[in-house]
Structure formats: structure tokens, C-alpha cells
Write a structure and sequence with these properties.
The complex is a heterodimer.
Chain A: E1 2-6, E2 9-11, E3 33-35, H1 37-54, E4 57-64, H2 69-78, E5 82-87, H3 93-107, E6 111-115, H4 126-134, E7 138-146, E8 152-159, E9 162-169, E10 172-176, H5 188-194, E11 199-202, E12 211-217, E13 226-227, H6 233-242
Parallel strand pairs in A: 1-4, 1-6, 4-5, 5-11, 6-10, 7-10
Antiparallel strand pairs in A: 2-3, 7-8, 8-9
Helix pairs in contact in A: 2-5, 3-4
Chain B: E1 2-5, E2 8-9, E3 12-13, H1 15-31, E4 35-40, E5 56-60, H2 70-84, E6 88-92, H3 95-107, E7 111-116, E8 126-132, E9 137-143, E10 148-152, E11 167-170, E12 180-187, E13 199-203, H4 214-223, E14 226-229, H5 231-235, E15 256-260, H6 266-272, E16 277-282, E17 295-298, H7 301-318
């Protein structure tokens, strides 16, 4: 099977967030970056498992500047065969999806995997956009995928308050949720091998952005917590009713 | 014109759809235009969408639409929006809406923002906001394309009744064949799903074991709340996976989130810190969750929770 896994770089959840002087961009100084967990733990690992069971290749793709190579190398260390980086600062989701689709169109992948969303913007848009550009089926929020022949897959996906089971033929695009696979930690051999794997840098195709970030602001500061004595739960209920007005 | 895709389940429109129509109505007011709702597949109470501001409802009744496929839905919604000349298409930021949203943006060459939490502004460009970086910042976007696609974060505004039942007009669009076969759908009946829940009672490792969850369920039952849990508790199967809220689980934004015996790791907060009001019950006064809480109780949860349940019972009885 020929599998493409889209990986993204995101600030770690625990990192402190600051912006440049005009509040138009994230200030990357001191920010701890990681590979988006949904891409790494679930999409990439399930792709590797399929390759191990059925043969084939796993290629990573990332849209971003040269700083992202570190995250891409980690994916190679976990087990991907090679990687492509589209060299641009991604300005919008639609642009990122367009660039990935342009690459994938020429390569005829059997499967295109990515995480259900990134943990910084949580937009959950890219998979659906790639699928639309390539006129492929899209299975979102996949928690289980079985295929014996690599041609037809049975997939369970999370829906509001339940689970749906679908059947779909390759090629298709899939977004991965928790449960699809178990996280793999790269070992020393993988890290050494990753250094010699191919990471191709490609110039972006022309695309006119349709939505752009204007500015970032910080949310209003949260007022201090009000402590209630444990024996005074009537008081808590009264506050929830009269002050917070949530019951 | 603003076109709102109103999601239904088994033909019934619920809060999610009413929120999306309310959002569409308010957006239409900003733009000085009208708001029209779109219903796909079986629809029992489509006229109700008028209550929330839809001037009419377009209904495509093809029963094959009762099975969801993002590709088919995106084609149909795109064609409907082109037929009526929609400038803004509004969806709900649910698993269904999110699966369509990106496809629709690509198909319509439309600028999009997913998970918006406030109504757009239109003086000096079409601008709209959403929460980013686990609630640590708000990003404002400008959409420059003629057609715009937005998905509305659940519980980011209250459905407001502004009109009366709308007329439902039949829409004729040929529905393409699906390449995704839905084999089964199983939903947990009788509870409000977590992404839609207004009241959530959640518990973590402080419960010491799955056999102790009775007091959590009692509290949830009295309140009419949905139960949730932290990641460690789901990982060791004390509670089912679908109850896990947090960064890798479900992100929620209820009006009230009661956290019992949860320390409040940042990965947990990332999924719940958009809740309107947070109550934290923990025996450790140093638990980081208190910093994110509106109300805190330091005490033994096995004593505090039953007392809180009793207090809610009294409150409900007096109401």
C-alpha cells in the first residue's frame, strides 16, 4: 500500500503563548513545539501497522518552513520511509490542503491519513478539504480500521453520542481519533536511520488565500476562584443559581 | 443571503440546529440580508427553524440522505447554496458539520473559519473570531472571498426565539451515489451527548475505583447532567471511552462543569476551560484545577458530593 500521512507542528499544550508586537503572529521564542499528537500517535502509527501487515510505503508530508524538519525527522524515526515538505509559512487551512492535494494528485496514494484536528487551532478542516480537492471519500474521527486486502476497509468512527461503522474502498482520506492506534516511541536505531531518509523540499504551488488571520487577543482574565466550605453546599447551589445563573 | 445547514437526528431538529439558525439569523442582520435554513433527509419539525430566525426552510427529502456521507452532503449543500445565491453558509461545529465544512470550503472556493464563537462583523471587511491555543488566545480572521463558510462552536450562543414557524419549501437536487457504505449506527439513548450538554458532572482518579461512581451518577441525575471523566480514568477502563473529556478526548463547553477528584492537568483543562462556570471539588488545596475554577470546595469528595446532591434536591423541590 502507498500511504501518505500529513503531519503538522503545533505548540505543546503546556507552553506559554505570546504574540509579536502587532499581535498578528505567534511569537515562537521559547515555545515548545511538538508533532501534532493526533497525527503522530494515531494516523502515523496506524499507517505503519498497515505497511507492516500488507507491505508498501509510508510517506510524510508537511506544509511549513525549514524549522519543521525536526518534527518531520521524528516521524521518520518512528518509521515512515520518506518525507516531503512544502516550503511555505502556511497562511490558511485551504492553502495547506491545496498544497497537499497538489502533491498527492501526482502520486496516486491508496490512503491519505491525518489526525482529526491540530491541538492549536482545532479546526478539523484539512482532511475534508484534501478529500474534496482529490474527489475522494473522507472518513473522519476513525477509532478503528480493519482491512485484510488493503482494498476495502471497515472503519468505526466517533459520532455525536455514539459510534458509526462504515465500509469504504481505497483510495480514501481518513482522519484519526484516539483509539485508532497506540503511540510509538522512536528507538535509537530509528533515530539513526531517520537521518539518512529522504526529505524532499518542494516549492509551493500558486494559491490565493481567502481567509487570513487579522490579529490575536488574550481572553479576559478569569476572576479568582471563590472557595466554599465543604459543609456549606446550600451556599454553592445558591451561588450557581443567583450569581453564575447556570441552574 | 445566509444559508444555514440545520442538522437533524432521525428527522428531529435539536439545540445544535437551533443554535446554528440563531447564529445565521444574527449574521444575516449584520449583513442586512435574510437567513434561510436547509434540511436534508427526513425532517419532522423543520418549520420550527423559523422560530429562531429562518425566513423559510428548504427541504431536500431524499431518504438516502438519512445516511451520512460528507461528500454527498457537501455536493448537495454547495448546489443549494449556489441555487439560492448564498453569500455565507453556516454549519454546526459537530462531527457531522466538521466533516462537511472543509469540503464545502474547497468546493465553493470559499474562505472558511471552523469553530467560530461570536457573530461576524462587516464594517471594514468580513471578520470573525474563534478561540485558539487551548483557550489561551482568541484569533480574529478576515474572509475575503465572495462566499464564506463558518461552523459554529456548540454552546457559544443561546438559541433565541425571534419569529414564528417557517414555511417549508421542497428543494429539487439530484443526490449523487455515496462511496461510503454506512453499516451500522449505535447511539447511547436517553442522555444528552457531551458536546451538546449544558450541565456536565465529571470525575477522575480521586474516585479511587469504578465501584464508587454511584455518588457521581446520583448528582448527575438530580441535575439532569451528562457524566464525563478524565483521561486516566478512561485509560484504565473505570469509565467508557466516550465519557473522556480533555485534549485527546471530547472538547466541551457546557454552562456548568463540576469536576470531582480531578487534579486539572493542562491537557484536561484544554478540553473543558471554555465551560461557562467551573466548580472544582478536590481534597488537595494545591490542585492546579482551582486556578481555572469559578467555585472551589476543598474536602473529601465522598462527603462533599452527597451533600451537594442533597442541596440540589432541596433547590429543585423548592423551585
Amino acid at each position: 500500500m502507498k500511504i501518505l500521512v500529513c503531519v503538522s507542528k503545533t505548540p505543546d499544550t503546556t507552553t506559554k503563548i505570546a504574540f509579536n508586537a502587532s499581535n498578528t503572529e505567534l511569537d515562537g521564542n521559547g515555545v515548545q513545539y511538538i508533532m501534532n499528537p493526533y497525527d503522530e500517535w494515531y494516523a502515523l502509527v496506524r499507517a505503519l501497522e498497515l505497511k507492516e501487515a500488507l507491505g508498501g510505503t509510508v510517506t510524510l508530508i508537511n506544509v511549513g518552513p525549514a524549522d519543521n524538519d525536526q518534527v518531520i525527522r521524528k516521524g521518520l524515526a518512528i518509521g515512515a520511509d520518506d518525507a516531503v515538505r512544502i516550503d511555505m509559512n502556511p497562511p490558511s487551512a485551504l492553502n495547506v490542503a491545496f498544497q497537499i492535494a497538489e502533491h498527492a494528485r501526482a502520486e496516486n496514494y491508496d490512503l491519505i491519513f491525518l489526525g482529526k484536528e491540530t491541538i492549536d487551532y482545532n479546526g478539523s478542516e484539512i482532511g475534508a478539504m484534501i478529500a474534496e480537492y482529490l474527489d475522494l471519500p473522507f472518513v473522519s474521527y476513525a477509532t478503528k480500521l480493519d482491512t485484510s486486502d488493503g482494498k476495502t476497509a471497515t472503519i468505526q468512527r466517533d459520532i455525536e453520542g455514539g459510534v458509526e461503522e462504515v465500509e469504504v474502498d481505497t483510495p480514501f482520506v481518513l482522519s484519526a481519533a484516539k483509539g485508532l492506534a497506540e503511540q510509538r516511541i522512536p528507538n535509537m536505531k530509528g533515530i539513526m536511520m531517520a537521518k539518512s531518509k529522504a526529505l524532499k523540499v518542494v516549492a509551493p504551488a500558486a494559491f490565493e488565500d481567502k481567509a487570513v488571520t487579522v490579529q490575536y487577543t488574550l481572553p479576559p482574565a478569569k476572576s479568582a476562584v471563590k472557595m466554599i466550605a465543604p459543609e456549606n453546599m446550600e451556599e454553592l447551589v445558591k451561588l450557581l443559581h443567583e450569581e453564575a445563573k447556570v441552574i | 443571503m445566509v444559508l444555514v445547514f440545520a442538522e437533524s437526528q432521525k428527522g428531529n431538529f435539536k439545540k445544535t440546529a437551533f443554535e446554528a439558525v440563531t447564529y445565521g439569523y444574527k449574521t444575516a442582520q449584520v449583513l442586512g440580508t435574510e437567513c434561510v435554513a436547509l434540511a436534508l433527509g427526513t425532517a419532522h419539525n423543520a418549520a420550527d427553524l423559523g422560530l429562531y430566525g429562518a425566513s423559510k426552510v428548504l427541504h431536500l427529502a431524499d431518504a438516502t440522505l438519512d445516511q451520512f456521507d460528507s461528500q454527498v452532503y457537501a455536493k448537495v449543500i454547495a448546489e443549494a447554496s449556489q441555487q439560492v445565491g448564498a453569500k455565507v453558509v453556516v454549519l454546526s461545529h459537530t462531527s457531522t458539520g466538521k466533516s462537511i465544512h472543509g469540503r464545502l470550503a474547497a468546493r465553493l472556493s470559499a474562505g472558511s473559519v471552523a469553530g467560530v464563537n461570536s457573530v461576524p462583523t462587516a464594517d471594514g471587511g468580513f471578520k470573525v473570531k474563534k478561540g485558539v491555543f487551548s483557550g489561551k488566545a482568541i484569533a480574529e480572521y478576515e474572509i475575503k472571498s465572495e462566499v464564506k463558510v463558518l461552523s459554529v462552536m456548540g454552546n457559544s450562543l443561546q438559541p433565541a426565539v425571534v419569529g414564528s414557524a417557517a414555511s417549508v419549501e421542497t428543494l429539487e437536487i439530484s443526490v449523487p451515489a455515496s462511496r461510503v457504505k454506512v453499516k451500522s449506527v449505535s447511539r447511547i439513548e436517553g442522555i444528552v451527548p457531551l458536546p451538546e450538554a449544558e450541565l456536565v458532572v465529571s470525575a477522575g482518579r480521586g474516585m479511587k475505583g469504578p465501584e464508587n461512581w454511584g455518588i457521581v451518577e446520583d448528582l448527575a441525575n438530580v441535575l439532569g447532567a451528562t457524566t464525563a471523566c478524565s483521561r486516566p480514568v478512561a485509560d484504565v477502563h473505570w469509565r467508557p471511552h466516550h465519557e473522556h473529556v480533555g485534549q485527546t478526548g471530547i472538547a466541551i463547553r457546557p454552562n456548568l462543569y463540576i469536576a470531582i477528584g480531578i487534579s486539572g492537568a493542562i491537557q484536561h483543562l484544554a478540553g473543558v476551560n471554555n465551560s461557562k462556570t467551573i466548580v472544582v471539588i478536590n481534597k488537595d488545596p494545591e490542585a492546579p484545577f482551582f486556578k481555572a475554577a469559578d467555585y472551589g470546595v476543598v474536602g473529601d469528595l465522598f462527603e462533599v458530593v452527597p451533600k451537594l446532591t442533597e442541596a440540589f434536591k432541596k433547590f429543585k423541590a423548592a423551585e
